[in-house]
């Protein structure tokens, strides 16, 4: 039977959109966490935490929705990625738990505050690294047979995924520092300005090495890149354009532009990843149509999603609107 | 010794889900209690209701926060340890879990912020509406997750094609035969949990003479609720049992420790089930009572565990004893409900020390009852994961080794031990500080929404200046 819509394709766009939303939104608050131990003083840490406090757990609800949505729309992705990344998923979850709890208890703590600082920074760093390794593992592809992962427990941990993990650390830290430029002022903002240019250089170097390495990791990517050279240069060109924007706006001490340009840099890199791999969701074997769940299941959830997501987006936007502007140390908790 | 990934995954799932379950079962009941308090405050303008609502909202915030954090783990467990099950059942389970996030989690997150931080920022009516919406959200969440679980117990509305379940009727799959009983049983259990915790804490405050008027009111409300719900729960439980007898007879046989199919079945009060020899030791029972309860016939025949091969039987001792603990606690609850009614005469219920001490102890009882109840229903399904259709051994992740499962099991135990020790310790601090507001004059707090625990303005450590006497008796 021919279905009237290609729901798998629609769901691929929804999940793809959800992933970049999560990366951008949880990315900057994880980045703030990674920067935490290096902050000038304890008051700066208060401000840093306050700047992401109102929004972080909303951000992580997107991750839970991502897990559940993947199970509903592309169960093969869910049931191959999670076993393949078994240890990595544990580290990710443990990291998120520690930082989530640290958010809450740090403001209540006095003598034990330094412990919560470390829980926050450590949890953020581990969770970020694990996410980067997931991206690397996706580029590498998975060892499967009959729709089941058959590789070993550490297939996801290779020199290549170590590098993508470090790349993610650098990328999220850049998101974090440009976020701080946007949300803070005075000494803390000056500190964030100083950090941003070296971080940008680190990101460019690591992303560059990953880009050069990627075609050697996977034949399909190599073929796609070198057979489409006439158009494939566009995305890296945009990435470099955004990198230049960050560099220039930091030098001009612009406040909003560094963050916006960093988002642009992330989006173009993400699109580059997608076009390199499209339409494979579990490389090298399975496309998004192979991985899709039943038509009526995708439809059943899509109907609800179309109704509810606009409401959720409206609320999310409203929260950001309510807490717009600069964050000060005394505007938080006692 | 060979590490068995199926066994270790079962232990791991039991551990993380048990740890998670104790938070929502409390917050579901507590959210409704808070909504009622807000309603009373709105209607009567009596500050006592406001005081109670503010205090219990603090407690709610801490418990809810821990529920959210432990819930992140759950959304990945199916994939990491039970990937064959995830793949096979995704057509049904995926939409159920996604709908839970969409219709419940976002609703709770949105209106919890207003409930916690918006008392002075939104009109009283909007604040009341938020309390009601948060309570509604907790029930919507329970609806979806119990629909998913009930379907695993009594699968319906699906057909198995190419190793995947395909939904042929959403209404039959969602409202599977055991769903109405489970939902009712769980909803009442949540109310009982909320009531007994609030009653126990109020009793403790009354014993210490703190905020007597407010705590007396709270205790009275809880006792009325318990008086109706504790017996109602027994009735619902009975119907649930009859439904289980129809759909999962081996689970009931394990609950009763009943090995051989026969009539005139006694209700065993005590026994040591011996799975190896397929018999019980040291049986003490009431003749014919199990036949009467389960078949409503003095001589009714009940199928015994011998109907299936030993390897297809659930672990009998676990199911048998967990069931007895649950029922025992349920009876204790009914006794306390009746004692509370007797002590109403002359208003003695809030001054009778043994009763208040007893209630204090009873505040952990509902958690035990809920956990043992889940042990009965989940262990009693063994060896099936989807009853009659997919076994646990078929469902486990094929690439999972015993070593990996052991590593994460230990990992989760360590993480939970650290995080939840801190959480429970902090909750105790909140309870210790109590309804009296030590920061009443400190009104410049500017709070932010979407941060559950932040609503509880209680320091993590015990104050130095307040050490030894942390409470101003009776407030300022």
Give a brief rundown of this model.
Helices cover 77% and strands 3% of the residues of chain A. Chain A has 14 helices and four strands. In chain A, the strands form two sheets. A two-stranded antiparallel sheet of chain A has the order 1-2. Chain A has a two-stranded antiparallel sheet with strand order 3-4.
Q: What is the first-to-last residue Cα distance of chain A? A: 63 Å
**N- to C-terminal separation of chain B?**
63 Å
Largest interface: A-B, 73 and 71 residues
Number of strands of chain A: 4
Please estimate the helix content of chain B: 55-70%
Strand content of chain B: 5-15%
> Strand order within the widest sheet of chain B?
1-2
Instruction: Indicate the proportion of strand residues of chain A.
Output: under 5%
Total number of helices of chain B: 14
**CATH superfamily grouping of chain A:** Formate dehydrogenase/DMSO reductase domain
Q: What summary fits the major beta sheet of chain B?
A: 2 strands, antiparallel
User: Which shape of chain A, going by the Cα principal axes?
Assistant: globular
Number of strands of chain B: 6
Poorly predicted ranges of chain B: 440-450, 464-476
| Largest sheet: number of strands, sense, barrel closure of chain A | 2 strands, antiparallel
Mean pLDDT of chain A: 89
Unreliable segments of chain A (pLDDT under 50, ≥5 consecutive)? none
CATH class of chain A, named: Mainly Alpha
What class do helices, strands and sheet pairing of chain A give? mainly alpha
Q: Could you spell the SSE succession of chain A in H and E letters?
A: HHHHHHEEHHHHHHEEHH
Q: Number of helical segments of chain A?
A: 14
């Amino acid at each position: 039977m021919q279905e009237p819509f290609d729901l798998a394709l629609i769901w691929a766009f929804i999940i793809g959109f959800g992933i970049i939303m999560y990366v951008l939104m949880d990315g900057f608050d994880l980045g703030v966490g990674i920067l935490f131990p290096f902050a000038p003083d304890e008051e700066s840490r208060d401000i840093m935490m306050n700047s992401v406090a109102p929004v972080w757990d909303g951000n992580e609800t997107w991750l839970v929705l991502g897990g559940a949505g993947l199970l509903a729309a592309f169960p093969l992705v869910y049931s191959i990625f999670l076993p393949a990344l078994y240890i990595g998923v544990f580290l990710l979850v443990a990291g998120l738990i520690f930082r989530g709890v640290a958010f809450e208890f740090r403001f209540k703590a006095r003598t034990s505050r330094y412990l919560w600082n470390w829980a926050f920074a450590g949890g953020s760093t581990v969770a970020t690294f694990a996410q980067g390794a997931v991206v690397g593992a996706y580029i590498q592809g998975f060892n499967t047979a009959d729709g089941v992962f058959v590789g070993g427990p550490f297939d996801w941990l290779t020199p290549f995924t170590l590098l993508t993990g470090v790349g993610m650390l650098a990328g999220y830290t850049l998101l974090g520092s440009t976020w701080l430029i946007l949300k803070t002022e005075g000494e803390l903002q000056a500190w964030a300005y100083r950090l941003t240019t070296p971080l940008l250089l680190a990101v460019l170097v690591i992303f560059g090495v990953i880009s050069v390495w990627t075609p050697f990791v996977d034949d399909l990517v190599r073929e796609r890149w070198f057979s489409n050279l006439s158009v494939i240069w566009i995305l890296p060109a945009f990435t470099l354009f955004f990198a230049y924007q960050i560099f220039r706006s930091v030098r001009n001490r612009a406040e909003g532009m560094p963050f916006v340009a960093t988002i642009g840099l992330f989006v173009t890199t993400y699109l580059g990843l997608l076009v390199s791999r499209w339409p494979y969701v579990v490389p090298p074997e399975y496309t998004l149509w192979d991985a899709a769940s039943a038509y009526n299941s995708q439809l059943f959830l899509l109907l609800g999603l179309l109704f509810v997501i606009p409401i959720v987006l409206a609320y999310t936007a409203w929260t950001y609107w309510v807490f717009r502007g600069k964050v000060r140390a005394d505007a938080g908790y006692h | 010794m060979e590490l068995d990934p199926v066994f270790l995954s079962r232990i791991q799932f039991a551990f993380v889900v048990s740890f998670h379950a104790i938070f929502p079962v409390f917050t579901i009941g507590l959210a409704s209690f808070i909504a009622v308090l807000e309603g009373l405050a709105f209607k009567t303008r009596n500050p006592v209701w406001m005081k109670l609502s503010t205090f219990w909202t603090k407690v709610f915030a801490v418990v809810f926060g821990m529920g959210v954090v432990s819930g992140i783990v759950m959304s990945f467990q199916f994939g990491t340890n039970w990937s064959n099950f995830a793949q096979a059942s995704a057509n049904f389970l995926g939409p159920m879990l996604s709908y839970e996030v969409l219709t419940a989690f976002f609703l709770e997150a949105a209106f919890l912020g207003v409930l916690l931080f918006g008392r002075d920022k939104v009109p009283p009516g909007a604040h009341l509406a938020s309390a009601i919406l948060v309570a509604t959200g907790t029930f919507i969440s329970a609806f979806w997750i119990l629909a998913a679980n009930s379907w695993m117990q009594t699968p319906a509305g699906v057909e198995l094609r190419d190793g995947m379940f395909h939904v042929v009727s959403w209404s039959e799959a969602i409202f599977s035969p055991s769903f109405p009983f489970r939902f009712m049983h769980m909803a009442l259990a949540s109310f009982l949990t909320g009531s007994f915790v609030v009653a126990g804490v109020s009793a403790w405050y009354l014993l210490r003479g703190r905020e007597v008027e407010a705590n007396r009111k709270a205790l009275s409300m809880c006792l009325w609720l318990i008086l109706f719900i504790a017996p109602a729960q027994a009735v619902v439980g009975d119907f649930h049992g009859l439904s289980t007898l129809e759909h999962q007879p081996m689970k009931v046989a394990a609950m009763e420790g009943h090995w051989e199919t026969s009539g005139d079945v006694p209700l065993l009060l005590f026994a040591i089930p011996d799975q190896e020899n397929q018999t019980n030791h040291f049986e003490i029972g009431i003749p014919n009572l199990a036949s009467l309860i389960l078949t409503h016939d003095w001589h009714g025949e009940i199928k015994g565990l011998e109907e299936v091969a030993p390897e297809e039987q659930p672990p009998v001792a676990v199911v048998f004893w967990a069931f007895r603990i649950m029922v025992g606690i349920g009876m204790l609850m009914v006794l306390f409900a009746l004692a509370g009614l007797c002590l109403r005469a002359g208003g003695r219920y809030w001054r009778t020390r043994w009763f208040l001490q007893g209630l204090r102890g009873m505040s952990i009882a509902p958690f035990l009852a809920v956990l043992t109840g889940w042990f009965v229903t989940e262990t009693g399904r063994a060896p099936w994961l989807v009853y009659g259709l997919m076994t646990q051994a078929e469902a486990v992740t094929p690439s999972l080794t015993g070593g990996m499962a052991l590593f994460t099991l230990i990992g989760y135990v360590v993480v939970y031990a650290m995080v939840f020790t801190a959480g429970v310790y902090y909750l105790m601090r909140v309870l210790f500080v109590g309804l009296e507001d030590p920061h009443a004059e400190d009104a410049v707090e500017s709070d932010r929404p979407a941060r559950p625990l932040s609503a509880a303005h209680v320091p993590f450590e015990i104050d130095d200046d307040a050490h030894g006497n942390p409470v101003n008796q009776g407030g300022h």
